Amino acid sequence: MNNRRLWMLPALFLLLAATNLVLPSARIAASQLPYDTYYKDGFGQLVRTQAAYVPASVIGQDALLSPDAAALQGGEAKARALNQPKDLFVDERDHIYIADTGNNRIVHLDANGSLVQVLTVAESPLKKPSGVFVDKQGDIYIADTGNNRVVRLDADGKLLKVFGRPESSYLPASFKYDPINLVVDKRGFLYVTTLGAYQGLVQLDPEGKFIGFFGPNKVAFSVFDAFKRFVYTREMYQRELKKLPGAIANATIDRDGFVYTVTKEIETDQIKKLNIAGLDQLAGKSDFAALQANRSYGEVLHWQRDMSPQLNDVTVDASGNITVVDSIWNTVSQYDLNGNLLFFWSSDVITATSKTGVVKTPAAIAGNSKGELLVLDGTNNLIQVLRLSAFGKLVHDANALTQEGRYEESEPLWNEVRRQNAQYTPAIIGLAKAAYKQEDFERAQQLFYEAGVTGGYSESFWQNRLEWFQRNFGLLMNIVIAASLAFIIGRKLKPRLQAGARLRLPAIGPQSFTGRLSHLLVLVKHPIDGFYAIRYEGKASLASSLVILTGAVASFGYMEASTSFVFNPKVQIGVDLIPITVQFLGIWLGWVISNYLISSLLRGEGRFRDVFYSSSYALFPIILIGIPVTLLSKAMTLNELSIYNFLKLAIAIWIALLFVWMVQGIHNYTFIEAVFIIALSLLALTIIVILIFILIALSNELVNFINSLYQEVIIR
Amino acid sequence: MTKRKWNGWLLVRLAFSAVVLVITGWIAYLVWDPSGSGQEGTASAASLFDTAGQSPYKAGLPSEQGFKVFAETNSLQLLVDETTAHFQVVQKATGNVWRSYPNPANWKDEKISGAWKNNLASPIVVEYVNAKNYKSSSVTNGLVENQGYLEDFKQKDNGFTVTFAFPKIQFKIPVEVTLREDYVETRLIDSGIVEGELSLLNVKLYPLFGSEPSTGQEGYILLPDGSGSLIQFQSDRTMPQLTYNESVYGPDLSYYNEYTDRQRIAMPVYGMKSGEQAFLAIIAEGESYANVYAAPAGSVGISNWVTSEWQYRKRFFQSVSKSSGEGFYTYSGDRFVSDSRATRYYLLGPEKSNYAGMAEVYRNYLIGEKGVTPIKSVKPEIPLYVDLVGADIEKGLFFDSYLKATTTDEAESVVRQIHERGIGHMQIHYAGWQQDGYSTHGGYLPVDKRLGGNQGMKDFIAYAHSLDIPVYLTADYTLNTNGDDGFWWRRDGLRNLAGTVLEEQLNPDQDASTYVSPKFYRKVIASDLDAYKALGADGIDYEGGIAQEVITDFNSRYSASRADVVQIQRDILQQSHETLGSVVASNANFYALDKLDHVHRLTGDYSYDVFVTEPIPFAQIVLHGLKTYTLEWSNVRDEWDDEFLRMIEFGAYPAYVLTGEQAENLRRSYSVWYYSMNVKDWLDRIEEEYAQANEALAPVQDRFITDHRTLAEGVKETVYGGDYRIIVNYNETAYVQDGLTVPANNFIVVKGGA
């Protein structure tokens, strides 16, 4: 015992150093910015791009501590560097305003980063101000968080108005008024972001009267929540952690009056572009809307899976491009005005040094008229200035033309983008749109396919199909006429042919292989009797059911891999059939086992082989309908989506019914019993799967434990 | 019957208990270590220190009057203070003085307090740790803190020797200072080092040599960071606490390395300019065990200082669990022993006191002492470097799929198309030709059949030779992915201090490749060279580790220290050169320079540290006229215009990485993800860029860069001797000065005149 404690002691001194374990690779490229820039397409595939922004400069201590700056602050003794600044605003003259929260002041720098003035509002001192906004006249609005108010100053820092907590019966008494940021629209209305306010932005009129909440988020309500609400008593449900919508973290306003908000702690729609009525203008607008039903903003690299991004601030440039910063991974993501991703970049957090162009804690982001991005670093107390690169500018210019619908003009620009980066998807989309506009539908279809845009592909395909029909109208009509003639003649000849056929057909013995296969026809017409016959009349054999099973798996694979791109976008990146097949077979086998186990407990008459055979036979609709549907899908566009969906639904329903009838037939149950048995079998299947998972996880843990024990013994 | 059975059972139980007891006892023995060998050592070390008879080292700076002339050369004078072992070097022509301690004029303003103030004045600063205690952290101290004293101070020819004794921590470190014609050399004598119970980690010798505060003069620290970067003397710096500390020739992956994402130090040099005087320090011997440490004003004291930090032990992170990343820090056991550890400080007067002057000193050193020979004959036109990618692989579920990019036939067509554009002087580097493409290492030969096999390669090379174009085959022998060449990772893999075989993984979604022991890859290369010769290759283009990575190998079968690895790599280059006639390496460390004919993809960038004020082409100034070099491939540039101008400013030749026209999509390939490589997209650009570069650089191919400076913000001038200057303007507006106009985003060549 004592001995063991001696062993454990060193283990207590273990240092957790997982984050420091990254091995620096000596194989870095010769030109090397401190971050890599990426694009992510609709399928989530990463594409590396040239840097869209390159480090330009750092505005840091010297802006506030240089002799000139010190004089403006009342001498060297009073001069202070930034201290935990929280917000940044750039006005139309490119002057920079920083909410220097830790020093209870607002710092005003000119376009070159030289100090202009320091605002503390001597008549009513600021306390932990964390947001600042400057309107067109130069009036300065400050979210004075520590004093629970918003103040409005003139350009020289004289106090004009104080906006305290608005008095209104619409404002709940429990509502906490902690303004952390604000924007002001052209009319002078204030949109105040308050700490943790899930109701939305507080909208005030110029006099400070409460107008209402603006742009609230919806509560995420999952199936599980619905289940809980159904099962729990009222008290239990209320005792559950209160489900609240995400609180808006920050907001900005563009020159057209759209208010942009970013929200933390939600998984989708983190960015909203709200019009004056508070409606989101981004929903469903992006090129990949069909692929991304639940749009998530704030990009991450694949290996950053364990934590989702938390967007801290948003800025919008003159062409409407939206740039957001994420405080978890230090990622900056840039979207165009419809929410299409353009670029994102992030750098590893380096504790040993600090680099130009990299922030430790991104507190706020703003853009200026030169197209530069300014990112405020709340830990290092400085501003990193990033300059738009030549490549970034080219993409911005081309995309602006595309968004304005000037597709022809955008084409040469996109061609140049594509020449420099053959894999950058926005260029392909831009070129596809230009081709569509120029009615070069063949090329448009091909480019949209390359880019993975189903909508555009479907439209181009529709045009091409129409053209094909028009071109081949004569031929098609001839075929129709020929077919009708053949039909009429055929009907006249039918009796004679039938007689002949009957004579020549070989007799199919009921127990032969082909006979067993043709038992499928019985299953189509009389499913219950057919399955009964499999149990009691030996209508199926291992060979025949394996043939059908193989056929069904092959057809399933064919459907997955060959359905038209319009309905199955993932074919564009290539479908790996092995995992799909394994999954399909695994579930099927699990079903066979669990159904056999359950039914043998509950007076089922089917033997294991009967369950196996008939479960194979029950899959035949996949072959019968699946293959024609897959072929047909290649001739369909999104306009015929409902037909396609109906056919797929038909397969599913037919198979479901066949399984019910199968259970009924082979185990000799009533319909209700069969449904009950199926439900139990599925439950058993779930339990089996869970047990397997637990077993794997536990044995992994055990191996790890033994391994680290071994390491400890060997090393020390 | 029963009796016997019972006995057998007892025997088994007894044997089992005995085994358990023996194992427990053995483990306890290992943990407890009863021999007490440590104490014995302590006693013997302690007896070496005679604190009573020695006067302890005094805090503060030496008095300026105590210095006596010890040595003298034509241009320099060495003055030494015997009580502190500090020295001064005086340049006789100008009277400029470089002190081995902080400038006394500013010492009263020194705000740093306590131990560090004493350290700054100390001739030697050591870092040590109690390695026996896992919890203890390292301590950095000078002489005063340890009641240190000087022992055996002896004057000798041209200098002196002295031993620094640290009685409190029981270290003795002998050093030597020597004055030569144009430099002063400080040297640590490893053979004489005495260590007690504590472990010596590193030593900074005369750390404040030549240091100056920011006030009073212009100046900068020169760092060998990337192609070279400057830290201008400045007060009120942003984030003043940051310092620079990097290992010469890059981090050693067999130890723990603090993650800094910095460019590797390829040149063992650093320097400082203050006012009209400057020095360039060359770590001339033992540089594989040195770090370059720089502390700009405000980080450690008010002085700007930069020094060699001599490594004796390195930190290591011992992981104990693969899944959770848990572990603890420890240190390597034995001290690194180097035959010699010497830093030379070359002293530069007013006319040479800038980074171009420093580069000249280093260039002369390379020519004079390292056997690097300048370029002798040049063709009338500059070379164009074309890297062709044969193939790569993409990660599949069970098998990686092969992505074909350029077959040998297509390679011929690429070369023909470029040649038809009127570019006659070209050099081809063919990569990804080996079995299973670019990211597959091991079993390189024969050439992959899917590209055309050995015969296809021979035909291609013969075609290229018919146009007088040399073909180099690109290879990385420092990794192995497939176990070919008789490589077994357990036996032949490069192992770190804990004995774990090192692996490299470019991306978490890909399979890792194994590092190969240097002594093993030397064997493999030696046996492959004849096959290269049979293909007709003009040489090998070494990518990856050779000439770039120096990693200690703890594989007991092949064990090699950092210095050994450097020597192994030099042997390989030498042997390749002898067999094939030529050899090229990518972004090489400068120890390989004398063996190379071309340095490919030499870094032209810096590490973006906040404290760096200006990146400079120091490496390029050293190299131009010595070796040809290129910067990053043109078609992988982030910004076309700026980086083209940088290529002209840095005197580098154009380089492209290309594939044939039928290349498969390489986006998801292991390593050749580059944006756009199809030759048809680049022909026009190549022609245009080559013409511009050729016009500017062809006349000066064999000339040294004699000066380089910033004329205005974004305007740089590179001077090749008195009569040839290139002025590059990165700005959006034209630069007009002295009757010269440099258009926006463009460059001009000024010939003739002074």
Automatic annotation (TrEMBL), chain A:
Its main location: membrane. It is found in: Membrane. The keyword Repeat applies. GO terms for cellular component: membrane. CDD domains: NHL (cd05819). Residues 524-692 form the Yip1 domain. The chain crosses the membrane at residues 473-490, 540-558, 578-599, 611-631, 643-663, 675-698. Residues 1-29 form the signal peptide. NHL repeats lie at residues 82-112, 125-156. It is a multi-pass membrane protein. Gene3D superfamilies: TolB, C-terminal domain. GO terms for molecular function: DNA binding; zinc ion binding. Keywords: DNA-binding, Membrane, Repeat, Signal, Transmembrane, Transmembrane helix. Pfam families: NHL, Yip1. PANTHER family: E3 UBIQUITIN-PROTEIN LIGASE NHLRC1-RELATED, PROTEIN LIN-41. This is DNA-binding beta-propeller fold protein YncE.
Automatic annotation (TrEMBL), chain B:
It holds the Pfam family DUF5696. Keywords: Membrane, Transmembrane, Transmembrane helix. The chain crosses the membrane at residues 12-32. InterPro entries: DUF5696, GH. It comes from the Bacteria. This is Uncharacterized protein.
